[in-house]
Write a structure and sequence with these properties.
Layout (H helix, E strand, L loop, with lengths): L1 H18 L9 H4 L10 H7 L2 H10 L1 H21 L4 H22 L30 H12 L36 H21 L16 H6 L7 H13 L11 H4 L3 H16 L11 H8 L4 H8 L3 H16 L17 H14 L1 H8 L4 H15 L6 H15 L2 H6 L19 H15 L8 H11 L8 H14 L2 H5 L5 H17 L5 H9 L1 H8 L5 H9 L31 E3 L7 H4 E6 L5 E3 L8 H21 L13 H8 L5 H21 L4 H9 L14 E5 L3 H18 L16 E3 L1
Antiparallel strand pairs: 1-5, 2-3, 2-4
Length: about 775
């Protein structure tokens, strides 16, 4: 009964606020205390009892009352931070103010006239008799952010106090290196601080969400003022906050001791805290100003970033700390892959997209971390879950953002030689994926899954084909031994992409053939000895290369080829397709009604990579585009590629759409003459007669004997002079910065539907669509 009376009392206060025609004085504490004095109001109550329509009505009809409500709520938070919230009553007031501001702030942000309100000074500043200080003239936003930062370190409120000390020191100068195992299902005494921290972090995330209400902008230097201040030297809690957030995420073990079904018996309150912490991290680590090239590292070196979170991240260097971060992220990303004998007996986390963004930012901002990841096989603990997510999401258009971030991470890693080398480690895990069973290494796994994405993924993934093949090109000089399954997949892709209708139906489709030919050339020139499977596959499918060498380019042939255009963009059939792994589930489309956030178009591959040549001593030297192999062919199509890709993604048309105008025939003649077929044709010229002769002389019908012959064969002195290894390294630009911002906030929006903080507000950064 008392609880219902409390809700009724709170609701009456809201109605009074919306119906009052005269401004209510800020000094009328009796009126304002109605909003935060009750002890039994939950966050769900606040969202239910303060409807969106009434917030907007107050904003339009009684703006002074809404302003006073925000000011008084912030004032209460400041008072709580100053006092340390020693009593239950003060803690409850702080929580109620936190919930109320979380509810109201999105409606402040959606109105352009109100966005500057929190950056104005507090009422009363500068009045007669009031001594002006930094605190009295501080904008309301700054007061709010500092109060929340301090409240996150209040003993007996948001952190447990230590008996030996009356004060908790939050200043952790290095990362914790031991993870918390076992019981994530906390005792009642320790649950409360976790819940309180979670609510304060939710308010913090709401403060940062002003970015959602601004349209996408190509200006990469536009900064979020809330994030800028929170991560500045003005916030004395910046260092302990950064280390604490990182520790909360990387120390979390959702499985613990692995007691079956414990997640069904008890609520894991720590998971909610971890999810909020990782979302705060990805938002505060957005740093894109200060560099014309868009490189975060250049910005770090030139200005020493004002964003202290980026600064601290870039300076982590102790191997113990780097290992703690990598193991923590790998453990969480691998969580959904954990296999148990009892179905659904282990807890599965859902915030893997946020974890991928965190991993991306660490690799991009801290090169010591990137080198640490790649110096051992630990990188494979990141690779396998990324490939799992890519394969699982390939048919689901609501998870296109996940597909992009996974591919971008692999593109970033593939620019480093050590990544290609590590992929030669045998793949012995048996994570159930609907891919053919094979025996091989991690490079085989990557190729098999990329083939699956290209041949059976959603049509909106076509703009990613360039990225997928670029990754394979980057690792190809280091692939020592491809399995027969992977070799056949590469030849199948070449066969699909080299069909005349596909080659001629878009001005950049031929680039996919160039990428695949470059893969074959790299392997033949640099890893011939161990790749008898690929050489055998090339010999078996030699007609593809002869067909490319004799590709007709006259008008009549091109038009005839386009008339034979198949219904699907690439061939879906593959005679070598094997049975999928046991226990795997096929990738399925999104269920009708699923919500998804729209994404910005991704720039073309030429805009997000820069070409580097590997010298004899292993160092990379940047190559001007005009001097690099196949540059002329690239340039002939790349000028229109980005626009075509953008339009294709927006209009959802496959790259081979018949609506694309016929390419200029001189353009086709230009790239046909530059097809890098010399090495492969020389290999066929030498080996095909030898293989045919041995088959006739010995009457061979078993391919294992032919493979044995090829394994001991050599082409030394017979091939053209080896070409330099060309690596395409990821390079950030304004387009990718905007894509990441849109994707990041779209993920956060969809992951925070209880309570629905931003639901039914005027979001402008992206669109929420229902499938």
């Amino acid at each position: 009964m008392g609880n219902s009376d409390t809700k009724l009392h709170f609701r009456k206060a809201v109605i009074q606020l919306t119906t009052k025609t005269q401004p209510v004085e800020a000094t009328d504490d009796v009126f304002w205390d109605q909003f935060w004095a009750d002890a039994s109001t939950t966050v769900q109550d606040v969202f239910a009892l303060v409807p969106a329509a009434e917030i907007r009505a107050v904003r339009e009809e009684s703006p002074s009352n809404l302003a006073t409500l925000c000011y008084k709520a912030v004032e209460r938070l400041v008072q709580g931070a100053d006092s340390g919230c020693p009593s239950d009553k003060e803690r409850q007031i702080v929580l109620n103010c936190t919930r109320l501001l979380t509810r109201v702030l999105p409606y402040i942000f959606e109105d352009a006239d109100w966005r500057g309100f929190f950056w104005s000074t507090v009422p009363g500043a500068g009045r007669a008799g009031v001594r002006l200080t930094r605190e009295t003239t501080r904008p309301l936003a700054e007061s709010l952010l500092l109060a929340v930062a301090n409240l996150l370190f209040c003993p007996d409120f948001t952190v447990q106090s230590h008996k030996k000390s009356s004060q908790v020191s939050p200043h952790v100068l290095q990362l914790r290196t031991r993870r918390r195992r076992g019981n994530n299902f906390l005792s009642p005494h320790s649950i409360r601080p976790v819940l309180f921290r979670t609510e304060l972090l939710k308010l913090l995330l709401t403060c940062f969400s002003e970015a959602m209400y601004l349209p996408p902008s190509s200006d990469s230097k536009s900064l979020n003022p809330w994030v800028t201040f929170f991560c500045s030297a003005e916030n004395r809690q910046a260092l302990p906050l950064f280390t604490s957030l990182l520790n909360v995420v990387c120390a979390y073990d959702p499985v613990g001791y692995g007691i079956p079904y414990n997640h069904l018996l008890f609520s894991d309150y720590r998971e909610q805290l971890v999810e909020q912490a990782v979302q705060i991290l990805i938002v505060t680590l957005e740093h894109d100003a200060g560099s014309a090239a868009g490189s975060a590292l250049q910005a770090l070196d030139s200005a020493g970033p004002d964003n202290l979170f980026v600064n601290y991240l870039s300076r982590i260097h102790r191997e113990e700390d780097l290992g703690f971060i990598l193991k923590g992220l790998a453990r969480l990303l691998n969580n959904p892959l954990v296999q148990t004998y009892l179905p659904r007996s282990a807890k599965k986390i859902q915030f893997h997209q946020e974890l991928l963004i965190v991993f991306w930012k660490f690799c991009d901002f801290n090169k010591k971390f990137l080198f640490f990841v790649l110096k051992s096989s630990d990188v494979l603990d990141m690779l396998v879950p990324i490939l799992f997510y890519l394969n699982d999401a390939r048919a689901d258009q609501s998870r296109m953002g996940l597909m992009h971030i996974g591919v971008f991470v692999l593109l970033l890693l593939s620019g480093e030689r050590n990544f290609g080398v590590r992929l030669n480690k045998p793949y012995t895990l048996r994570v159930p994926m609907d891919i053919p069973v094979f025996t091989g290494n991690h490079a085989d796994l990557l190729i098999v899954i990329f083939h699956k994405i290209i041949t059976s993924g959603h049509q909106r993934l076509q703009p990613l084909f360039d990225c997928l093949l670029t990754i394979i090109v980057n690792i190809s000089p280091y692939m020592k031994s491809l399995s027969m399954v992977a070799a056949n997949k590469l030849l199948h892709l070449l066969e699909a992409f080299s069909t005349p209708w596909f080659l001629f139906s878009s001005t950049q489709n031929h680039l996919l053939v160039f990428f695949l030919l470059e893969v074959f050339n790299n392997i033949i020139q640099y890893q011939f000895d161990g790749n008898c499977n690929l050489v055998y596959a090339i010999i078996r499918k030699r007609n593809i290369f002869h067909h490319l060498a004799n590709l007709p380019t006259d008008t009549a042939s091109v038009q005839k080829a386009l008339q034979k255009k198949r219904k699907s963009r690439v061939s879906r059939t593959n005679s070598t397709e094997a049975e999928s792994m046991e226990g795997s589930r096929p990738a399925v489309p999104a269920e009708p009604g699923t919500l998804k956030a729209s994404l910005e178009a991704t720039p073309g591959i030429d805009k997000i990579t820069e070409k580097s040549q590997v010298t004899e001593n292993g160092t990379l030297v940047a190559v001007p585009q005009s001097d690099s192999p196949q540059a002329a062919a690239d340039n002939s199509a790349m000028s229109g590629a980005s626009d075509t890709e953008s339009n294709s993604e927006r209009d959802h048309e496959p790259r081979g759409s018949s609506s694309v105008m016929l390419p200029v025939f001189s353009q086709v003649l230009s790239w046909k003459g530059k097809l890098p077929l010399q090495t492969i044709m020389r290999l066929l010229q030498v080996l095909v007669p030898q293989v045919e002769k041995i088959c006739i002389d010995k009457g061979l019908t078993d391919e294992s004997e032919i493979l044995k012959f090829l394994q001991h064969g050599t082409l030394v002195g017979l091939l053209p002079i080896p070409h330099p290894i060309l690596i395409r390294k990821y390079q950030a630009n304004a387009g990718t910065v905007m894509w990441f911002r849109t994707y990041m906030w779209g993920v956060i929006y969809l992951r925070n539907l209880d309570p629905p903080i931003w639901y039914d507000t005027d979001i402008r950064l992206f669109e929420i669509q229902r499938i």
